[in-house]
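note to self: the first set is below, dont mix up w the second
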Amino acid sequence: MVKEKTTRIKPLLMDQRFVAGVGNIYAQEALFKAAIRPTRPGVRITKIEAGSLFTALRETLLSAIEHRDPPAEIIATRFGQSGSAQDLHAVYQRGGKPCLICQTILLATKVSGRGPSIAALPALIP
């Protein structure tokens, strides 16, 4: 299904008609884990990358639920508790800071008016 879409992968992931429950933060984190640039068109995602992305999305969403983050600010306000998922973000709100894996400075860019998206590992992410 991704192979048929010419839309960039990040906005495609955030399209609730395509995948429910994935927003800006989760899309960024999953794309980073799957080593896919948020600006790549869906038609350029290989079957192997789609499998990696599915796994990364699942892990990202399960981690967010486990750490009370749908989103943390709402949980803190409504239940007097704060979530801890934001402490686990590898790229969200880390533009200009070093990558936790390779120390390359993370670049923040807007993708389809949402953002910023973070691109890291320029030698590894097509």
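second set (the one i keep forgetting abt)
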Amino acid sequence: MDRQPTLLGSCARAATAAEARFRINAPAFTQRCSRVIALDEQAAEVVGDLAGRTWHGGHFLVFESEVPGDALLRLAAGGGQPTATALLSEELDGADTVVMVAGPAASPAAASLIGDAAAARGIMTAGLVLPGAAPVDGAVAALRPNAMVLVVLGNSADLLEVLSALRV
């Protein structure tokens, strides 16, 4: 018996008028307020390249240093634009998602500081590990206790697709 694939639109066309009244015709999603934070210089390069694109409420940042009770971040600017600084506590106000991007040199202290601050505010965290010449074990170990979702990317270019899927 030869099977035909189910087309994505088949279910929508097969619905009766009575079934169609249960469809939601509102916009699919509200705007996100995501923070994408690079934890090391390899991640900062990749995040900086993506920062110049059009996003839906995402702020792209780079972890600089810990300051008493907070962290100093710099804005990831693509295309050689000047960078400004911000405090983690200010950036997390109103945020609904924090995505930490780490290369092999990611700091466990930075991941812990960001993860704890997000958890205290009830913000969902994700950790994305970039592949590189060095083993990613250190980055995975740094992010594992501090991210609700942890993904080791197969290619740095995959970061764009993951962030798009998260609606950053």
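remember for set 2: The chain has one domain: 33-165.
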